[in-house]
Specification:
Length: about 280
């Protein structure tokens, strides 16, 4: 079984950053996560921003909060939180290319006193204990292996009573079985060893010092984003194969388009759900 290192995860994001620029409106919204659609959503950009809105709403973000964005990508959530709530945000990533984009955007903004970005591993940071009111993790905990390492570190850096908000892909019981290996093959394209399982979620959080307060299922709101990923597979397959024939392509960028197929097949088979989870650190 493949086991991805933090260097592999950094390589994945460094190698595929142009794919997100081309297919995911990265330069416009600064978001690598999926988008949430409801009846009032008018565009994909709006769907991407909806994730930040919903996570902030669920968490109850306040101006006096100090937030750790664990797996900050190119900084979209950090900018959203600082702009809309005036809170301080520290964003950390493993990807050098993501950090460059985030810092370039920061230099163009008026948020330098509120937002900071740096390279760090969210399972082993250099922050002091009890430093943050909120740990924010949007589609990043899927990369942690083991997951307990992330939860232990989140517990350590959160203040007593602090909140952990997760937005991620969670395996159903069928997904844990994964009879067609759709989830496994999807994870291999994204440098993900395993996704969090719904069956052990309460136990995992409880054992690591957290109590789940809210657990909301947004799977029905993610279908259009999942289908968009599928279309990137359909329309990106031939150009990618041709490009690979004439170029020395890196390992993740070479097969990244295939992830769109596997994640969509896994969704249609109800192997995963998309959820926003809020947990509180025990005092």
């Amino acid at each position: 079984m493949i086991s991805f290192t933090k260097e592999d995860i950094a390589d994945y994001y460094n190698q595929t950053i142009n794919h997100y620029k081309n297919w995911w409106q990265l330069s416009e919204v600064l978001a690598i996560h999926s988008g949430l659609w409801d009846n009032d959503t008018k565009s994909f950009s709006e769907a991407l921003i909806n994730v930040n809105k919903k996570m902030a709403e669920v968490t109850g973000i306040k101006a006096n909060h100090h937030v750790l964005d664990a797996g900050c990508g190119v900084g979209g959530a950090a900018f959203y939180l600082a702009n809309n709530f005036g809170c301080k945000v520290k964003g950390i990533t493993l990807s050098e290319k993501q950090l460059i984009i985030a810092n370039n955007e920061l230099q163009k903004s008026k948020l330098k006193d509120l937002v900071k970005f740096e390279i760090q591993d969210f399972t082993q940071t250099n922050f002091k204990e009890n430093s943050f009111d909120v740990v924010w993790a949007c589609e990043s905990v899927c990369h942690a292996n083991p997951k307990e390492a992330f939860f232990n570190e989140a517990y350590r850096v959160l203040k007593p009573g602090g909140k952990l908000v997760l937005c991620d892909y969670f395996l159903t019981s069928a997904g844990e079985a994964d009879k067609n290996s759709y989830v496994k093959k999807w994870g291999e394209k994204w440098a993900v060893d395993n996704f969090l399982a719904l069956s052990s979620l309460n136990e995992t959080l409880s054992e690591n010092g957290f109590k789940i307060i809210k657990n909301s299922n947004f799977t029905k709101n993610i279908h259009r984003s999942s289908k968009r990923l599928y279309y990137s597979y359909v329309f990106g397959m031939i150009p990618t194969i041709l490009y690979n024939l004439f170029h020395n392509t890196s390992k993740f960028s070479k097969t990244h388009y295939q992830s769109g197929y596997y994640q969509y097949k896994a969704l249609k088979k109800e192997l995963w759900e998309y959820r926003i989870l809020l947990a509180k650190k025990h005092n």
